[in-house]
Write the structure tokens for this entry.
Amino acid sequence: MLKMRATCNILLRLCVPVGWFGIALVYGCGARPRVTQASVQAIVDSLIPVGSVPQRALRVLDSLKVQHSDYGKQRSISANFGKSHDDGIVTGAVYVTLTYDSTDHLATRTVKELFTGP
């Protein structure tokens, strides 16, 4: 964390002569996570218990205004809980996959934080 802060300070000093572009470039250095993997895991664990039916998960995801897939032939629901990280170069988001058994009851919940960038 200290190393990242020092890097941001150096970038800020280098970018100041560039004006607003420099400010926009460094803006992400102080960015805070919007959601965390742990907070999403807690929400999913408490609101969508193992053994529940897909309709319950869809109602919960809709009420939280979470972007998600429909329940279909693959017996799963994928959901994007939103950005967890954005420093202007790398972006992270927390995704949930709910997998159902042959009787259409929730069998597994997977919560992952995925990153994109260089």
